[in-house]
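Quick one - inputs below.
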Amino acid sequence: MTVTDDTVTTSGIIGQPRLRKEDPALLTGEAKFMDDLALPGALWVHCVRSPHAHATIVSIDTSAALATEGVEAVYTGADLADLWEAPLPCAWPVTDDMKSPDYWPVAQGKVCHVGDIVAVVVASSRYTSADGAEGVVVDYEVLPAVISIEDAVTDEVVIHEGLGSNVSYEWPLIPDPEGVEAAFANATHHITETYVHQRLIPAPMEPRGVAAVPSPHNGDMILYSSTQIPHILKVMAALTAGIPEHKLRVIAPAVGGGFGCKLGVYPEEIICLTLALRHGVPIRWTEGRTEAATATIQGRAQRQTIELAADENGKLLAVRATLLADMGAYLQLITPGVPLLGAFLFHGLYDVPLYSFTCKSVFTNLTPTDAYRGAGRPEATYAIERAMDVLALEVGVGPDEIRSLNFIPTEKFPYDSPAGLVFDSGDYQPALDRAKELINWEDRRAEQAERRATGSKTHLGLGISTYVEMCGLAPSRVLASLNYGAGGWESATVRILPTCKVQVVTGATPHGQGHETAWSMIVADRLGVDPDDVEVLHSDTAISPLGLDTYGSRSLSVGGTAIWMATEKVVEKASLIAAHMLEANADDLELANGVFSVKGTPGAEVPLAGVAFAAFTAHDLPDGLEPNLQAEVTWDPPNFTFPFGAHIALVEIDEETGEVEIIDYAAVDDCGNQINPMIVEGQVHGGIVQGIGQALWEEAVYDEDGQCRSTNLGDYLVPSAAETIDMKLDHTVTPSPTNPLGVKGIGEAGTIASTPAVMNAVVDALRHLGVTEMAMPASPMRVRRTIEAAQGGVS
Amino acid sequence: MQISLTINGTEYCEEVEPRTLLVHFIRDQLGLTGTNIGCDTSSCGACTILVDGQSAKSCNLLAVQAEGSEITTIEGLAGEDGLHPMQQAFHECHALQCGYCTPGMVLASVSLVEEYPDLDGQGVREGLEGNLCRCTGYQNIVKAVLSVGK
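Output:
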């Protein structure tokens, strides 16, 4: 069976829904998450955290804590400062003059956000470490807190005095400034919209956890962490904690979700390493949910202005985006890079000749921000997709029509984007057409009109969001041009064992995405073995020493491709041995269903299993050929991949209560070829709900002193089953030409598309009441107030 | 204090601090780590177990409150002949991804179907409101529960 003519020929395993091999351990409690590890003799860390957003530490009295039963030691920042080689790393200095404060694992004299660590209690148990923390008395001199981006840019209060300003960097991408100015000057329609992306708490169901386990004999150290990035963590932790890289092994056990927030090098990881070296025993820490709200990175937090210039028909002439981004108190691993990931996509999937993007990123006295599901791309998509609805209204056409008019035409691919990227492949109109079918667009429009005509107080709204995203964060040379501090390749090893079972080693570290199943399918498809006969090794730097881990929907298009290529190399070698065994020419052999045969010569065949055993015994191999069947590939793709799709939300709003209910949702996504459609569908479901969460419920709420008022899952509303509905999914298939599998990536698509779809639907539902814009989240109170304001009442 | 209780068919008689939460007792003292902790406000449901056949959040109980009760954790759900029908349904419907909420979600679902065998999709959704999942978007979880209910 052929997946497409453009890419590899497959034997039929690729493309089939296949139940996950990960499931049984997770379903029976056998899987070991971070906090499940039994580490005899371990001491527990409790972090004493700042209750203030901005304060000077006058003094810390640890005497009562030290006297607490079970407490072994208490450390302040001053006690530990000499033990670290370097502050916590930021791997993405986007400009040469970017301002970056020292980010020490424990505060040095001053705290810059609620949750900043001021002292560490080490005790015999989880409970006694908390007891000890109660006894730590810190005297603070509270300073004025900078909470908003708008206040931050004034520099009235400078958070990191040594930097002289709260502005970390300014980054422009304006290929043709005069052209953009001229386009706006000559445009018939000039739309200017401002949107705010509230701060989000990523909230994976498993909070973070760390354990550092020293070897008493040779200085080796194992760092266990609930991280998405064991490989990157290893390098960064070695540099920060001052441990020789070859003495450090990082293991990510089963990880209970990441969504970007476990893509960091955190204070607690360095603290546990440092203290394990000092105490010579395992040191562990587990985050509480309330702690997670202020100590783990947060997402979004941008204020964006987007301008569209269009001709009289609504055809876009130019797009200009201006961004203010809140970095939070410090720069985490890739904090400054998040706005850049959106910088290339504020023009969306539209054929726009001229483009301008500028970004100013500032420090505030809030928890650091960093990559959260989609990272930069949901922000960009939100702006353009909301603004396109405004343009449609102004031009007097439907939201579907304005999009169709402006889609990049299929014949223009590969498409040179105005921001300087090359979009690999795309065919946007069919996705929108199909989504309209799934939602019954015309019928729903008629129903909406009828309700308005009859004066119903329950309003219907339809919202479209079409999107393209940039996935497979990889091409190392492109990342270099953005000052990113690492490459973007991925490594894979494929090894056929003596009994013809197969071992795959991957650097693409999973945290719930089902890599073991998908990778097994890729290998099994090519080799003709059962996917259950493939073992996938990952998440341990001693077993998988090379890798760049999982984020940005890169695992399949980069890591999966590496696996396909390594499999091909193994097949090449195996065919030399098979040819030797069959006394044939290797070029005349083909491998199908696990058997090598000579083309056109019935009966001249040898099973792969026989070849594998011959490679193992090495009794009679072709001259010069090494024994065993294994190959390693490191794949650095030539380009990103650009998945796309169209989502449509149908909402109903009760005018009296302001409650928004999603009553139908259609999503058509194109991630190129699919390896396992069941996994794709699951990723889309979860992504959509996460994006709806931002639109309707989720917000890290801060008061004017910088206190987070949504520190638990009672106050921070992660959607439950009761708020969500069954979604209608479909897909189109436009393979990527940048990798042999023709795959693109899907993990973030739902989150990118659903937020603007829902918000466009909310505004659409209330437009006849005079509502032109709605801020997020569209909570009942905000909806009520917006309606009242639109109708001339109090706002 | 000393408590006696039965977990997954095994009787335990253990010494606990009065302040010990049931979830910590099960996880740390007995080593049954299949029950997960996802929050500290009894909001997420990851620590859901069955106490005398009914679902309960084990972070919301003290160990001493479980005196004399019969508890099932995820480790005790599968039978000798394989996965419990609810576990099997979650597997077949792809109702889990990272799997962290899964033990609690499965046990809450077992209890829900036991109590209300005729629930429709909306009923399942409302019945599982106390169990949060960040990965699946719930659609496949609802599908799995309905497939067992019928």
